[in-house]
TrEMBL record:
GO molecular function: peptidyl-prolyl cis-trans isomerase activity
Protein name in UniProt: Parvulin-like PPIase
Region (Disordered): 1-22
Gene3D superfamilies: 3.10.50.40, Porin chaperone SurA, peptide-binding domain (1.10.4030.10)
Lineage top rank: taxon: Bacteria
InterPro entries membership: OMP_Chaperone_SurA (IPR050280), PPIase_dom_sf (IPR046357), PPIase_PpiC (IPR000297), SurA_N (IPR015391), Trigger_fact/SurA_dom_sf (IPR027304)
Naturally occurring in which organism (per UniProt): Sphingomonas naphthae
Length: 429
């Protein structure tokens, strides 16, 4: 006999569930244990197995450097299952529209990913197997992303209009605000309904916690974000705060480069922002300067203690202070047994953040303060030349047009996927 549980569900005026005409006092027959989760599903006849979930989970864990707690792995499994369901619906919709992604195209993308890991495709496939995933799992993800882009290209993008005057108006505002701050933003967007808002907020809080503990924002964006930018790790590119919703603009204004926000509530969901970088509109950024450097370094035998290395580090620091131009580097380094490496064409913004301001303040021929560790070695950088950056020209007409178009495509894509979920036959096993 079913067990009835009585619950009071308060009704709010104007609630989105009003159309369902649900009773205020209701009985739930047969309690559902929220701790019991079904791990696999059949989506319109296509089976998603435990193995599919496990192999995709392994990809996420690798992307986060293996730093995913056990409790978070279980939550990730549930999210991955949802993502695999969406991915299946996207591939099925592409097939229904006779939009095919060939094996050759998938292999080409897979091979490019392998090269980014500095591996041959065969070695990359072996590596994926060694970490608990597979080449097939990654190729399936590639197929889903490619298929969905093609669906949007046929069914959404042709019906999105961006006016020439809109773009010109934005360009005029940019020119009028020369010197204003511009932000490179990453975003993870999670949609919700009034019924799921608390659950989605809790999930957003966990994502923020994991990223702050060392998880990769890009990996979480790819796995969790429901925006079209998920495929590129949530990267929105360079934007002005005026281009963002007020809630996001207010948060970004208070953040420094490298920071991640708390979850921000929007109409229809929650956003997590990462400020990747900042610059000034239509103004040359000193960090785009290109440097010619000489690196002078010393290393220590394995097991050397901090105390034992102190004397040699002091001699190295004295040597660095005595360098008088790049022509004297070799002789100065020889006195302390240091190694010298020359490097041209180094952009300031590609240096570690603590070094960027230091190098920008150096005159030609001066050296940075020594830096490093006993384990990795101690080094100094000598500035031999600097090419100043050209004045920034700002985004082009086409770039602004593309951003506006992408924002509108993204909104329609979310509605499209929501319709596919609504009409799908999904059997959880």
């Amino acid at each position: 006999m079913a067990i009835a549980q009585q619950q009071a569900v308060p009704r709010q005026p104007g609630n989105s569930a009003d159309a369902l005409d649900l009773p205020t006092d209701l009985q739930v027959f047969g309690p559902r244990d929220p701790a019991i989760r079904k791990a696999t599903a059949i989506v319109n006849g296509t089976i998603i197995t435990d193995t599919d979930v496990d192999q995709r989970l392994a990809l996420v864990i690798v992307a986060n450097g293996g730093q995913v707690p056990d409790a978070e792995r279980e939550r990730l499994r549930l999210q991955i299952l949802r993502n695999l369901i969406d991915e299946t619906l996207q591939i099925q919709e592409a097939a229904a529209q006779d939009l095919k992604v060939s094996a050759a195209e998938i292999d080409q993308t897979f091979n490019r990913l392998a090269s980014q890991f500095k591996r041959t495709p065969k070695d990359f496939a072996t590596y994926l197997t060694s970490v608990g995933s597979s080449a097939a799992s990654l190729k399936r993800q590639v197929e889903g992303e490619t298929a969905w882009r093609r669906v949007l290209g046929r069914k959404v993008e042709p019906f999105v209009n961006v006016g020439e005057e809109e773009v010109k108006a934005i360009m005029a505002r940019l020119n009028a605000s020369k010197g204003a701050q511009e932000y490179r933003i990453g975003e993870i967007y999670l949609s919700d309904t009034p019924a799921t808002a608390a659950q989605v907020r809790a999930n957003a809080d966990r994502i923020v916690e994991q990223v702050r503990q060392g998880g990769a924002f890009v990996a979480y964006a790819r796995q969790y974000s429901e925006a079209s930018t998920a495929a590129v790790g949530g990267d929105l590119g360079w934007v002005r705060l005026e281009q963002l919703p007020d809630e996001l603009a207010s948060a970004a204004r208070e953040m420094n480069a490298g920071q991640i926000s708390e979850p921000i509530q929007l109409a229809g969901g929650w956003s997590i922002l990462a400020v990747i970088d900042k610059r000034q509109v239509l103004t040359a950024d000193p960090r785009d300067s290109v440097l010619s450097l000489k690196q002078v370094s010393i290393t220590f035998p394995k097991g050397t203690s901090q105390t034992a290395a102190t004397g040699q580090v002091e001699r190295f620091a004295n040597m660095a202070r005595e360098i008088k131009g790049c022509g004297s580097v070799a002789d100065a380094a020889a006195k302390v047994g240091a190694e010298v490496v020359s490097s041209d064409g180094v952009a300031v913004r590609d240096l570690p953040a603590p070094l960027q301001d230091i190098m920008l303040k150096l005159n030609i021929g001066e050296s940075s303060p020594p830096f490093g560790t006993v384990e990795d070695g101690v080094r100094t950088l000598v500035l031999c030349g600097r090419d100043e950056p050209a004045a920034a020209s700002g985004p082009s007409f086409d770039q602004i047009y593309s951003q506006l178009e992408e924002e509108r495509v993204n909104r329609r894509a979310q509605r499209y996927l929501r319709d596919l979920r609504r009409d799908a036959v999904i059997d959880y096993r």
